[in-house]
Design a protein that fits this description.
The complex is a heterodimer of chains A (638) and B (264). By secondary structure, chain A is an alpha/beta fold. Helix content of chain A is 32%, strand content 28%. Chain A is built from 17 helices and 24 strands. Chain A has a six-stranded mixed beta sheet with strand order 5-6-7-3-8-9, sandwiched between helices. In chain A, strands 11, 13, 14, 15, 17 and 18 form a six-stranded mixed beta sheet that branches. A six-stranded mixed beta sheet of chain A has the order 20-19-21-22-24-23, sandwiched between helices. Chain B is mostly helical and 264 residues long. Chain B has one domain. Chain B has ten helices and no strands. In chain B, helix 5 packs antiparallel against helix 6, helix 6 packs antiparallel against helix 7 and helix 6 packs parallel to helix 10. The longest helix of chain B has 36 residues. The relative contact order of chain B is 0.14. Classes of the chains: A alpha/beta (638), B mainly alpha (264). At the A-B interface, helix 1 and helix 3 of A face helix 1, helix 4, helix 6 and helix 10 of B.
Chain lengths: 638, 264
């Protein structure tokens, strides 16, 4: 357990109430002043028109760590950050901060336009609590960073917004903060400067600065934060590993988007029955790869919940429209907006007249299908706006706006702006294991320690390092099947959320994947036998990742597995490399914790011969690809 | 942080803010210091003309009438501006207050330094005018600054005690502005109230009146007519300033919260 000295921000059951009515909020303000003068504390009851913007949120930020905060607009993210920064006082609970905070709640703000850039630097850093002589010492570095050598003596009012943001960022990071509080500022300035900001933040983090980050970008949250806090309606819904929390957050966002679209489409049907205009949209349907194509799907998809597309796969929209009279020179226009970038232009603007010429509708209704092969949108939620226009001047006859479509992707946390299908080929070089994520194991340890003794936490199953393991496993399989002319069949036993499939897809290996879910995160592993029995046919490869540590009778389990496949790929966190204490093993719920030698002996005993291996988790876990020897030695225990 | 260290930090920060922002205020002005005394000069000229025409009957004073009006108006100006210091400080620093946490009393102090500076300019003008127009003895030279800075303290104290409420309620701020705009007529700046009428009572009870009278007596080289009242007013000024700054410090989060809410 990390010591308490390590905690730089401790947020303890904080709550903040606001009044919805502006006038009332001022009256309440006066009353609060009165209460304070009388020495009374604020109570936890809400007065008329008040609501909790943040309720009962607790977390601890440790030195050098980072927490990402996600949530929809109005979920209390900014209020929480303001309380951490000391700008707002919590109505209830407490915020304790050790160290200097560099708040980046709105860059370039707080500057005085009539003063020169130089004076603003001094003013800004003074407010941020930097001593005068330190400002003099850092001044050149600030100007270098902001790249404002020529303009620094001009009044700030003459600066472009980008220049102001640069100066603001430069000032904030030069306060030598122990805590950076970032609210979506990484989206300022041009691309080159954003890269610079990112690198600077990384540099600060490496030197031990903690980070509190609010962002709508899953990629940013997943790459920059160690833990993620999900706020909904002012309450902390979840606090855990970024991948897990982002998944829950995205699922909730998707659910909301689906509801919205479904309602909208129902309205459309009702409306079209009632109204009679020149032309109306009768029905909109989203189609794509998510329906039925994916036979080995894990079933946790909210199938049928709402329209979903998958990045890189085919997608389509079908629009049915019509009117009482025949119409000519029509065009169907489809606009797609990325909700992660509010206020930005349409990222897709497709016009049927431009692509295929005018549409003429002679009958009562017509149906137009727009097919989008290999969808290039990255994962996220999008707003779709449809319109039907006439003539070159695009007189709008009908509009359907605010439809939401969710795009999913097999790859997570991508930093790309759009999805690109791809294949890699290396000549004169072989692909060895993928780089393991440094610090992943210690990260896992820290999270375990934080939770204290108790049950094994399934969050760990989805740690980024586990994705790495799937990637290394895919690397081993790629090496084994590279000369194979036919497609392989693979059984992933205890597949959890099919990370291996994702990794195989990314490498475009000729492998057919079938997953058998064992819920290995539960200490109850008895379902293994049932699953092993249910394997329908011999497989080329059977894979068991993250399971060997839990199985009560590992030798017989492995023997059964090897009956179903010629190759077996296993992972095991080996004892001499990980050195987990018995308490930790208890927490993890592990029954087996073998040394490399013991594990190899076990493999030999059950008739498995290692042909390739890899290391993951800071080399703590062994990945072994084994071939079944023709004759297994008689039953013996490891 | 103990209160003393906190106060020290606030003073140090306020001084740095003041240094950086003082140039900005008169940056767009060519006449600079002139505007600090211009209103008093204008009113003096007006009252002198009106008095020559017999419209206004100023009371008897050993000081030349123009000087007496000038001193009174100047002192009122100092007082009225000091009342607005805390409110203006918060308004002007809105963009910092809502984004950065720092010692909130510092911005009021920084604004106060500005007020002290303009007061110094006005005081210098007053001393020069009195010295040339009437002659000034050493006692007067020492007492005049006390009157002027007493007015600053008194104004600042009242302003700081009112500020939380003027920030919350725009109506109150408008009322205060109106009072400060026309309040000059409720002081003995231009005329001495005669008799015991209600108006005369108001003028006499005006807290700035004793300071005005004292300033004139000091300028004229006379002994103070009401030394006790004078000292009491100074004491009230000092106490209200301390209480006001403590209040500002305590209620700042509540005000800042409303600034964010109002989006103003």
């Amino acid at each position: 357990m990390a010591s308490d000295d390590d905690v730089v921000v401790r947020v303890d059951a904080v709550a903040k109430k606001f009044a919805r009515s502006l006038k009332r909020s001022f009256v309440y303000g006066a009353r609060d002043i009165g209460r304070m003068l009388l020495g009374r504390t604020t109570d936890d009851t809400l007065r008329a028109s008040e609501f909790w913007a943040v309720r009962d949120v607790s977390f601890q930020l440790r030195r050098g760590r980072s927490i990402g905060i996600v949530g929809q607009n109005g979920s209390g993210k900014t209020t929480l950050l303001r309380m951490v920064c000391g700008i707002l006082r919590p109505s209830l609970g407490s915020v304790t901060v050790h160290g200097r905070i560099a708040p980046m709640l709105a860059l370039g703000a707080g500057f005085k336009p009539v003063l020169s850039g130089r004076q603003n630097v001094f003013l800004n850093l003074s407010l941020l609590g930097v001593a005068e002589r330190d400002i003099h010492a850092r001044y050149d570095s600030i100007i270098d960073f902001a790249e404002l050598h020529e303009a620094i003596d001009a009044p700030l009012g003459t600066y472009s917004s980008g220049m102001q943001a640069r100066l603001g960022f430069a000032c904030a990071v030069h306060t030598e903060p122990s805590i950076l509080v970032v609210d979506e500022v990484l989206s300022v300035g041009d691309a080159r400067f954003r890269v610079k900001c990112r690198n600077k933040i990384n540099e600060l983090r490496r030197s031990g600065t903690s980070l509190l980050l609010v962002s709508h970008s899953p990629a940013l949250i997943e790459t920059l934060s160690d833990e993620c806090l999900y706020l909904h309606g002012g309450r902390a819904v979840m606090l855990g590993l970024p991948t897990t929390v982002m998944r829950a957050y995205e699922a909730a966002t998707e659910g909301e988007a689906h509801n919205r679209t479904n309602t909208k489409l129902q309205e459309l049907t009702l409306q079209s029955r009632r109204e009679s205009t020149e032309l109306r949209v009768l029905q909109v349907a989203f189609g794509g790869a998510n329906s039925g194509v994916d036979t080995d799907d894990d079933g946790d998809d909210q199938a049928g919940a709402g329209p979903t597309w998958t990045a890189g796969r085919d997608a389509e929209i079908t629009v049915q429209f019509g009117g009482p009279q025949p119409l000519d020179e029509l065009s169907l226009n489809v606009m797609v907006f990325d909700l992660a970038q509010p206020g930005s232009d349409a990222i897709l603007f497709l016009t049927s007249s431009h692509d295929i010429g005018w549409l003429r509708v002679t009958g009562e209704s017509a149906s137009v299908r727009l097919r989008l092969p290999q969808l290039g949108l990255r994962a996220g939620t999008y707003r779709v706006k449809l319109s039907i226009s006439r003539t070159k001047l695009h007189d709008i006859l009908a509009v359907v706006d605010d439809l939401r479509i969710v795009v999913r992707s097999d790859e997570r946390g991508t930093a790309s702006l759009y999805h690109q299908n791809r294949a890699w080929e290396a000549t004169g070089a072989v692909c060895s294991a993928l780089p393991d994520q440094a610090g992943a194991a210690s990260e896992e340890g820290a999270l375990l320690a934080d939770r204290g003794p108790g049950r094994f936490n399934c969050d760990l199953q989805i740690a980024p390092s586990w994705m790495r393991r799937a990637e290394v496993a895919a690397g081993l399989l790629a090496g084994a099947c590279v000369d194979n002319k036919r497609r392989w069949s693979l059984a992933d036993v205890g597949c959890g959320d099919r990370k291996l499939r994702t990794a195989l897809t990314a490498r475009a290996l000729p492998i057919d994947y079938v997953g058998f879910d064992l819920h290995p995160q539960s200490p109850d592993i008895t379902r293994f036998d049932a699953a092993a029995d249910s394997l329908p046919r011999p497989f080329d490869v059977a894979v068991m990742l993250g399971v060997t540590e839990y199985l009560p009778d590992l030798p017989s389990a492995l023997r059964r597995l090897s009956e179903h496949a010629d190759l077996v790929l296993l992972s095991h966190v080996v004892a001499e490399r990980s050195n987990y204490s018995s308490t930790q093993l208890d927490e993890l719920g592990w029954i087996n914790h073998l040394t490399t030698t013991a594990f190899k002996t076990l493999l030999a005993n059950v008739g498995l011969h290692p042909i390739d291996r890899g290391l993951v988790y800071d080399d703590r876990a062994l990945l072994v690809l084994c071939r079944r020897t023709s004759t297994a030695p008689p039953n013996s225990s490891a | 942080m103990n209160p003393f260290a906190g106060a020290l930090a606030a003073v140090s920060l306020s001084w740095r803010i003041f240094k950086r922002t003082i140039g900005a205020k008169y940056r767009k002005s060519f006449l600079g210091y002139f505007w600090m005394v211009a209103p008093a000069l204008l009113i003096t000229g007006g009252v002198t003309l009106a008095s020559q025409a017999g419209v206004v009957m100023p009371g008897q004073s050993s000081l030349p009438q123009a000087l007496s009006v000038f001193l009174g108006t100047l002192l009122w100006q100092v007082f009225a501006e000091a009342i607005e210091v805390p409110h203006q400080a918060f308004e002007g620093a809105r963009s910092y207050l809502t984004r950065v946490h720092f010692s909130r009393a510092a911005i009021v102090l920084a604004q106060l330094y500005e007020s002290l500076l303009t007061t110094a300019v006005r005081l210098t003008a007053a001393i020069v005018f009195v010295a040339f127009g009437h002659g000034l003895d050493v006692g007067g030279c020492l007492l005049l600054p006390v009157c002027f800075y007493g007015a600053v303290l008194l104004g600042l104290g009242i302003g700081a005690l009112l500020m939380p409420f003027t920030q919350l309620f725009a109506d109150l701020q408008q009322t205060l502005k109106l009072l400060l705009g026309y309040g000059l007529f409720l002081t003995p700046a231009m005329y001495q109230p005669q008799g015991d009428g209600a108006f005369a009572m108001i003028v006499r009870c005006n807290p700035i009146s004793p300071l005005m009278d004292a300033a004139r007596q000091a300028a004229a080289g006379e002994a103070l007519a009401q030394p006790v009242v004078f000292v009491v007013v100074l004491g009230v000024g000092l106490l209200s300033t301390i209480a006001g700054l403590l209040l500002v410090r305590a209620v700042a989060p509540i005000l800042i919260e409303r600034m964010l809410l109002g989006g103003r």
